Amino acid sequence: MPNTLNISLEQALAQSPQLAAQVEREPRLQELMAVARKLEGMVRHASTHAAGVVISPVPLTEVVPLYKTSKDEIVTQYDMNGLESIGLLKMDFLGLTTLTVVDDALRLIESTRGEKLELDRLSYDNAATYEIFSKGLTSGVFQFESSGMRDILRRYQPSTLADLTALNALYRPGPLQGGMIDDFIARKQGQKPIAYDLPELEEILAETYGVIVYQEQVMQIAHRLAGFSLGQADLLRRAMGKKKAEEMAALRQRFVSGAVDKGYPKKKVIRIFDLMEQFAGYGFNKSHSAAYAVLAYITAYLKANYPVEFMAALLTNEMGNTDKVVQYLGECREMGIALLPPDIQTGAWHFTPADGAIRFGLGAIKNVGHNSVEAITAARQQAGRFESFYQFSEAVEQHSLNKRVMESLIKAGAMDSLGDRARLYAVVDRALEAGQKTQRARDAGQHDLFGSATVPGPEASPLPEASPWQESQVLAGEKEVLGFYLTGHPLRKYQGKLRDLGTFESSDLASLGGQKEVAVGGIITSIRVARSKKGEMWASAVLEDLKGTVDLLFFPEAYKRYSEELKQEAIVFVKGMVRMEENSSPKLSISEMLPLDAVEPSLASAVVIRVRLGRGNGSVARKLHDLFEEKPGEAPVRLEFEREGEFQAELEPDLRVRPDPDFATRARAICGKDAVLLI
Question: DSSP characters for 159-215?
């Protein structure tokens, strides 16, 4: 059989003479092929659409055969095309995790602040919310989270729900590749004139600055200019979207003749239809985009006005997705929200607000399941605060505790209130044994004169002495049970050095596009070695930095050079080419790798800064002064002042700076990208 997907039996026989000869030779295969030809193309199994709901004006049993799945779901036996052809309506009701995040955030706001928000009464002109969008601070904001969208938000500066709706519709491959977003932003900012081929189009296209963005606009134009009924206009929209050539030719003729009959110039009408055809191919449904924009606004509103509750809900819903949790924890730090470690004394299954901070959820600890957390919570409600490790073990139901659970709680820092981690870890077995004895006695009804359960065997002793864990051991334990470092990070002490080296962070790479060489610093967390089809060894590895992770690719030549240094937990500086693959995170094809300790930044020996004189120079001078004071060093500075068409002047002040990459980035942000030269 040919190794080709989706070919018919006839095509298989035509492509493979060996198959055809064998079928002709063997009667059993002739019979098999005869039966197979009759079965070919028939429905082979029943499956359910993930979100499709069929709506009918009468009971479905009167118009379509039904089927009950193994999960007792009632579904139609016709597929979606068959349902449509007999006049039934199929609606897709999407299930979105974001709705759960919003619901959880509303519950937290009500429980912590006593405020009951009603989303249907929400104002859509909240300044703090649009600031979130305009500054691109949209991590966790529905549909606006990607680095590419953040860049567009900063350029576009949205200020209304209509702006968000349009950006939602435009941020897709078709409009992006066609340059529609750049055109749209230029019109919004007044850099490009807004023109309409006919005055009647202004009312329809004014909100999108003369650009056809929505499918509904195509329908309105056909209705207004060519006299199409709304039903006919919808047929035009669908034909355009599906690129049906024959239908399009007939509709074009009807559109042009209808518009000309109403007195519009034929040349302009043809041009308008061409524009409609061009944009409708990837035109978006406005109602869909508006609904998503509303949900995006709601999440941004919660983030702007109730940041602790929103981020707690977001983290809870990403439990199990280590990369996302790391990303959002970094976002919390940037927002000034402290993250408190997990704690058996106050923690719950989920992440919870705690006096302006967020308490880590016990449910995010590896090996600690729902039953264990429920048992801990129940014991805490009954006994109050846990006073000792032994009392904890005796109070919590033993069927929900075991050695792995206890050790994981200790490594995560959830039991720090009961003692040093090393000392707790050394006595896990004894504490569990003491708890089992106490609970067996309690279940057997053994009580002393005062009604307390008697404990057979020796009384609980104090925690034994043990050498405190080194910082590396503490961090390794947190990484093991949480998936990341919580109380510190091995890279934290290298932050300044990485900034001086001009490295990118893992979260930046997706916005760079492919085929760009970058440098990144981090810690190797996993390695996989494989053999290519040519028999050569190569490897993939995961590098973690303070913002997330990135996959590294060591092709055979690079692997030969660096196989000795490629080790788990190695802290390294790497250079490589960004590789972008469809529907996957960016990867780095490694060209160079060195231990981070062995790399030293090379700094420029002098700095030239060009200052263009004009309005707002007072602000520029203050910002440069602050930057110079913050970055003292050895490199002299020369300032070049210029006023276009008038004069130039130079000044060499008596100051010296450290021209590291951070200095250059900030100086360029103050004076312009081409205004700073490092010599």
Answer: -SHHHHHHHHHH-SHHHHHTTHHHHHHHHHTTSS----SSTHHHHHHGGGTT---BH
Radius of gyration of the chain (CA): 33
Mean pLDDT of 105-117: 95
Token readout for 282 is 């990837």
In whole angstroms, give the CA distance from residue 123 to residue 121: 6
What string of DSSP letters covers 503-572? PBPGGGGGGT-SS-EEEEEEEEEEEEEEE-TTS-EEEEEEEEETTEEEEEEE-HHHHHHHTTT--TT-EE
Q: What are 284's strand-pairing partners?
A: 214
List, for residues 195-212, the tens digit of each pLDDT value.
Answer: 898 999 999 999 999 988
CA 342 remoteness from chain centre: 24
Kindly indicate the confidence band of residue 677, based on its pLDDT and cuts at 50, 70 and 90.
confident
Sign of CA dihedral 211, 212, 216, 218: positive
Report pLDDT for 166.
94
Check pLDDT > 90 for residue 337.
yes
* Mean pLDDT of the residues in the chain: 88
Angle at 174 between CA 173 and CA 180, to 5 degrees: 110
Given this model, what pLDDT does residue 203 score? 93
User: Which residues, 6 or more positions from 483, have their beta carbon under 8 angstroms from its beta carbon?
Assistant: 322, 325, 326, 366
Question: What is the CA 399 to chain-centroid distance, rounded?
Answer: 38
Q: What pLDDT shows up at residue 424?
A: 95
- Kindly list the distances between the CA atom of residue 611 and the CA atoms of 621, 633, 650, 672, in Å, as whole numbers in the listed order: 9, 21, 10, 9
The string of pLDDT tens digits covering residues 519-549 is 899 999 889 999 988 889 999 999 999 888 8
Dihedral Cα 406, 407, 413, 419, nearest 10 deg: 80
The predicted model gives 390-417 an average pLDDT of 94
d(CA 436, CA 559): 53
With b for 16 or more beta-carbon neighbours within 10 A and e for fewer, the 32-58 pattern comes to: ebeeeeeeeeeeeeeeeeeeeebebee
CB atoms within 10 A of CB 337: 18
Distances (CA, A) of 659 to 519, 545, 635, 637, 650: 18, 24, 7, 10, 19
Residue in the block written with tokens 């973690």: 544
Mean local confidence (pLDDT), 373-400: 92
Q: Are 308 and 356 in contact (CB under 8 A)?
A: yes
HSE value, Cβ hemisphere, 13 Å, CA-based, for 424? 25
C-alpha distances (whole Å) from 470 to each of 171, 467, 473, 575, 595 are 49, 9, 5, 31, 22
Quote the pLDDT of residue 646. Answer: 67
Q: How many CB atoms lie within 10 A of CB 206?
A: 11
Residue 465 is classified by DSSP as P
Torsion angle, alpha carbons of 135, 140, 143, 147, to 10: 50
Q: What value does the mean pLDDT take over residues 375-403?
A: 92
User: Residue 87 region, left (φ>0) first, then alpha (ψ -120 to 50), else beta?
Assistant: left
The angle at the Cα of 520, spanning 488 to 670, to the nearest 5 degrees, equals: 95
Tens-digit pLDDT profile for residues 448-476: 544 554 444 444 467 888 899 998 899 99
pLDDT (tens digit per residue) in 549-584 = 899 999 999 999 999 999 998 999 999 999 887 657
Token pair recorded at residue 667: 């100086």
Instruction: Round to whole Å and give the CA distance between 370 and 326.
Output: 22
Q: Is the pLDDT of residue 645 over 70?
A: no
d(CA 519, CA 521): 7
